[in-house]
Each structure stands twice: as structure tokens, then as C-alpha cells.
Design brief:
The protein is α/β, with parallel strands linked by helices. It has a single domain, classed as 3-Layer(aba) Sandwich (D-Maltodextrin-Binding Protein, domain 2), CATH 3.40.190.10. It contains six helices and five strands; from the N terminus they run ααβαβααβαββ. A five-stranded mixed sheet has the order 3-2-4-1-5, with helices on both faces. The longest helix has 14 residues.
């Protein structure tokens, strides 16, 4: 049964899995960011919002899907990329949480944090800064 579900999920469009959105604290210094800015933040190239304030990206339980949507890379490739950056001493990867609620709690408590969750999990303490499906 698990194999059948896995096979079916491989042929579904990514958008059928979860409708992911990139979120920020409701009072973050940015209302929207571009996909390129999100890529640069999540790939460790930028540590500031476009407005100049620092940004702390966090990963959530949909990490594999998020990076497929963001940079069209598999999780193993992303992990290898971060291993190289960490080994070279350039930067550290985003903090990681295992539950969407933990991502929401962290982002809603930290104005410089961004993270991703399923659209159905949004609350009034965060705002969508990038729709990952478009």
C-alpha cells in the first residue's frame, strides 16, 4: 500500500501535494519578496531583506517540496550544497523545524524570520510574502 501511495504521489503535480506559502512576521519590514530574493535568502547568498534588515530563514517539514518548488533541486542536492557551505565556513543553513506549528510560532515571534507552511495553516500573526505556486 505504501508503495502504491508513493508511486501515485510521484505522478501528481507538486501543487497537489501542498499549497506552500513563504511567510513573515506580520510586522516584518517587507510585504513581498521576489522568487529570486527568496532563492538568494534560502541558498545563503543574502542575509538581509531587500530593505536592509536582517533575515533569518527557517525550514519546515515540507522542506523537500519547498526546495523543489524554489530551485527545482532534490533534498539530497540541497543538503550537499549546505554541507559544502558549512565546511567552507561561509554560512550556516536555515534553522529547521519538524512541525508547521513550530515554524508558525517561530516566525510569529521573530520579526526577522521567514518560513514556509501550507496555506491552510496561516494565522493572523504572519503574512504571506511569496506564493510558492505562482
Amino acid at each position: 500500500m505504501k508503495i502504491a501511495l508513493l508511486l501515485v504521489s510521484l505522478f501528481l503535480p507538486i501543487s497537489a501535494l501542498a499549497d506552500l506559502v513563504l511567510i513573515a512576521h506580520i510586522h516584518a519590514p517587507v510585504d513581498r519578496i521576489s522568487r529570486d530574493e527568496a532563492i538568494n535568502i534560502y541558498m545563503g547568498r543574502l542575509r538581509r531583506f531587500p530593505s536592509g534588515e536582517s533575515v533569518q530563514p527557517v525550514d519546515g517539514p515540507a522542506k523537500a517540496q519547498f526546495y523543489r518548488l524554489l530551485v527545482n533541486k532534490e533534498l539530497a542536492d540541497i543538503n550537499a550544497y549546505w554541507a559544502r557551505l558549512v565546511f567552507s565556513g561561509r554560512t550556516s543553513p536555515p534553522r529547521s523545524f519538524e512541525q508547521n506549528q513550530a515554524v508558525l510560532d517561530y516566525v510569529s515571534a521573530n520579526p526577522d524570520a521567514i518560513g514556509y507552511v501550507e496555506r491552510t495553516e496561516l494565522n493572523a500573526k504572519v503574512k504571506v510574502i511569496l506564493d510558492m505556486e505562482h
